[in-house]
Amino acid sequence: MSGHTCAGGSGCPQEERVVSKNRTVYLKDYQPPQWLVDDVYLDFALQPSATEVISTIRYRRNPLAEQGDALLLDGHDMELLSIRLDGELLMPERYRVHAGGLEIPAVPERFTLEVTTRIDPQGNTSLDGLYRSGGNYCTQCEAQGFRKITYYPDRPDVMAPFTVRMTADAADNPVLLSNGNPVASGKLDDGRHWAEWQDPFAKPAYLFALVAGNLACVEDHFVTASGRTIALRIYTEAHHIDQCDHAMASLKRAMRWDEERFGLEYDLDLFMLVAVDDFNMGAMENKGLNIFNSQLVFASPEIATDDDYISIEAVIGHEYFHNWTGNRVTCRDWFQLSLKEGLTVFRDQCFTSDLHSAAVKRIEDVRLLRALQFAEDASPMAHPIRPASYMEINNFYTVTVYEKGAEIVRLYQTLLGIDGFRRGMDLYFQRHDGQAVATEDFLAAMADANDADLSQMQRWYDQAGTPRLSVRMEYDSAAHRCTLHVSQSCPSTPEAEVKQPFLIPLALGLLRADGTPLALQLAGEAEGCGSSRTLLVTEAEQSFTFVNVPEAPVPSLLRDFSAPVILDYPYRAEDDAFLMAYDEDPFNRWAAAQRLAMRTMLAMLAGEAADVELIATAFSRLLADPDLDAALKAEALMLPSESEVADACAVADPGHIHEVREQLRVRIATLLQGELESTHAELAAASGLDDLAMQQRKLKNVCLSYLLTLKTGRVIELAYRCFLQAACMTDQYAALAGLASCDCAERKLALSAFEAQWQGEANVMGKWLAVQAGSSLPDTLEQVKQLLAHPAFDLRNPNKVRALIGTFALRNPALFHAIDGSGYRFVADQVLQLDRMNPQVAARMVRALMNWKRLEPVRSGLMRAQLQRLSDAGLSADVGEIVSKSL
Ligand code: B3K
Ligand code: ZN
């Protein structure tokens, strides 16, 4: 019904028009909507278990669509009470209700449809559509939740202005909110009251929001560059109201930043943000009324870690930035999701990087991309940033669409420069404000604004998989020429066997033996220009020759991670140690450290001699480097994760990988104990929330985590002391997480003290669950099972599910992959239970079982058996898609 399958044109057989939950939807089948909407009027009579919704909608035929006079609307999980067409009550023979929607066979060119439905917010455990959280009403409509509220053409290219009226019990729901501006409100005699809201901007239904309940509010304001005063309000349950200052300050920083960097101003007079405890993801950019997972709002030094502070600022920025990239210019269909998400992630990355350390931000983003997105590219769910098909769209809110999508947006900036990128953005808004468009429109704006041919960029949208960039260097000592032979390839993925070459910007430098950079002069150029430059790789094989190169250099390749590829260069361990010490590009100093650590672990896995001294010496030199900031040192010291190591192995043995990584950490800690202890001690006093203090705490806690691998009484005592004396959650949590993997009395003491201190703070108790689920102690699964019954856990709350089950399944490979299959069985059990309540959250968890083909034979068989067991049970479309694609 959403046009992608069949727009319901006259040639369609009746059956095909019916939405089937288990059908594949294809990009190639896109058809413009048959009917356009002039305006929407919604009237909600809110009651916890029986809310009545009257939608009054004016439709008119889309002149650009096929002929045919049937109206097809999406809708399910509602009770249909009545339909009136231009005022006339329709008898059941005038329409058909299907599993996925409603069909009215003969409608005029223009008409008003009034539909009354009854829904059950209280019973809605999917947290999709209208539901209840903490006794309040809230909504989540992206991607297809609106169709659980009323019958509607629920697709992003149908845009309309909305007016919303709601009535509710006044005592329970003093606050009544929706998108846009409040226009009227009043009291009724029966203890109920009402409010009406109007959103003047035409929007797709996925941006609709409603909130009603007993909420407190903090208020502030922002004066825009053009001098308009915007009221800012954050709503939350009263006892959290004093934890919203950081969120409010972040919002104001985001508003200012978007004006300065992109010339984009907020467009309504009011911006509202509501924090709720039950939410399927991080937050939602509903027009004028962002709804947030409370985890990404509440902060004070006692309850939030430094990482939480940074994520809150980033996500507040992200949702705010969507007002232009997503809301004002939206997606034509859900295949274009990366158009708004990749772009908005890129924008939030720039925001964080402008406000804090750009190098650390880049490292963290690339760490995430390599650990999760490269793995997704190598999984049965691999898909291009613009997928060609899906069964359940909610399964495509992925690291590929978001984070790889952001990398592809970054490529434009790398190719066109900051100013060229801005010109492209300006043209994009100039052309498409108020429209629902496709990724091609973004590409065209970037190309046209810069008079550039960017046609090869299209391949990044259509081809999945992580390209491998192999570089070989040839040095001619007589001619002082250095040639880089570059070749690219990309493995087959479900959508294509053979891949066309990508456009890959390769940023690089060349270093002399004394560590100084060389001026880079390509053959044919009159003189050298700079010590860092970007080559454009466009072919499967290409060579680039530099002249005036007096000695064989060490190349520093893919600086700042200039493209989302796997780099292959025959670096020797000494080269990595050298680059760690001398590279001008901080990102590549980190990348060299990661490579060195990875090489060492792979050697240990293969039973070969590993040069741990070399890595320890390089780490020790980093620790002593006065020019390097503490956070960069911390990043370099953190070894690649177990899952990254697994990705680097043809066949993974997760138990062995865990052992080897821990062994390496112990050996490094043994060799550097003195330095780790002294660094830890020097930084002990770091306090405050400024960047310097945060960076220092990060390094201090990385040192502590190394020291704890030694498990001596002395380091355990140190960690316990840190726990007891911690002045902020960052330090308290780091000490607790470290102790959680040590079998000692202090572990128990710390866990119970933490529980006693924080039992009233749901989000902090999530951390308490997570440290236990992430523990490397052998009885972790038993503990996790017991915690399922703890009052702090609730299977209906996604944060708690992610903290306990998610941490175990996705962040504790050693225990999850227990050789007896107990981890797999446990996760499959939980998925089965969860799937009946909340398919979207269940579908996240089941991804842990996807990659059975990459495992050694025993685990592979055990994991596959659990997938089979799931497949034999009745599954939601969400979990069903992942299970069927994995098998
Ligand atoms: N756009 C939402 C994500 C909606 C997810 C729906 N399953 C949040 C964001 O990316 O900003
Ligand atoms: Zn987003």
Secondary structure elements and pairings:
Elements: E1 25-26, E2 35-45, E3 51-61, E4 71-74, E5 79-85, E6 88-89, E7 96-97, E8 101-104, E9 110-119, E10 129-133, E11 136-140, E12 160-169, E13 175-178, E14 181-187, E15 192-203, E16 210-213, E17 216-223, E18 229-236, H1 245-262, E19 270-276, E20 283-284, E21 289-293, H2 306-321, E22 330-331, H3 337-355, H4 358-377, E23 389-390, H5 399-432, E24 436-437, H6 439-450, H7 458-462, E25 468-476, E26 481-489, E27 504-511, E28 533-537, E29 541-546, E30 554-557, E31 566-568, H8 573-582, H9 586-605, H10 612-624, H11 630-637, H12 642-648, H13 654-682, H14 691-708, H15 713-725, H16 729-739, H17 745-758, H18 762-773, H19 780-787, H20 798-811, H21 813-816, H22 822-837, H23 839-846, H24 857-872, H25 877-886
Parallel strand pairs: 2-12, 18-19, 19-21, 22-24, 25-31
Antiparallel strand pairs: 1-23, 2-3, 3-9, 4-8, 5-6, 5-9, 7-8, 10-11, 12-15, 13-16, 14-15, 17-18, 20-21, 25-26, 26-29, 27-28, 27-30
The chain binds (3S)-3,7-diaminoheptanoic acid and zinc ion.
